[in-house]
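Encode chain A's predicted structure.
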Amino acid sequence: MSEKIVEIKNLVKRYGDLLALDHFNLEINQGEIFGLLGPNGSGKTTTINCLLSLLSFDKGEIKLFGEKMAPNKYHLKKEIGVVLQNVAVFEGLTVYENIDYFCGLYINDKKLRKQYVEEAIQFVGLEDYKKMLPPKLSGGLLRRLNIACGIAHKPKLIIMDEPTVAVDPQSRNKILEGIEELNRQGATIIYTSHYMEEVEQICTRIAIMDKGKSIALGTKEELKKMIKTGEKLTVEILQLSKEHKDCISKLPHVYQTEYQDNNLVIYFNGGKHNLVRVLEYLGENEISFGRVFSELPTLNDVFLEITGKQLRD
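Encoded structure for chain A:
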């Protein structure tokens, strides 16, 4: 059985009359890349700040590595790395000096620290930029520096809050590959992002928050089974009568149809061979059609149906 790295029980946090966390519960196991999703104001940032003991809370308990967390538990904090959405580096220090500074907050041994800094630079691919100042770096390279500063001391738990915001696709892929490699090396990762495709790609389990509560939890496959939306089929049809549209709406597992701009969109709530049945109906009724597209539900569909909101505002 995997060790529990994070245990949050019945966490309550109020800001005056605002209930930011409403008896929030969460468990994260060793070795997970855990996705924490939620619309703006859902309580993600408050949860992370409470987890790091940067915020006090009104009720509940937080354990890290099996031990109760508190502001003075520096031996626990030493095992945590934080990569925030807003890049937090010193503009007057070089790439090397920045990583050395942040690593030095945890590693006193100079020889070991030098080794760790060099390994972090290699890990994020900044070997050619060690002497450069942050203002001279591109957005993607700056994000990589931000990550190196957060992981150089080799923490067991890494919190990554929107690490790929406003970076080019090449840098994004490099960052995601780096996160998976950190995980293979033994780090447990909490990952927040507004890019659903990233979460689908790398996260082993996902929690969706809203209004201070966890409203859904599971693997991406488990989450997709929680919603009504299944396969979505789009068929190009130049002319479709209301009668035929109504008949298609009565096919097995169909729960909604839309026809506009010469496109028939059919939503299914599960079932197999949906495409075959639709094509058979069109053939039997001599209805001409063009291209056909089949789409399975995405994590974005899950989020929208469960919360009623788009993740990206």
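The longest strand covers residues 4-15.
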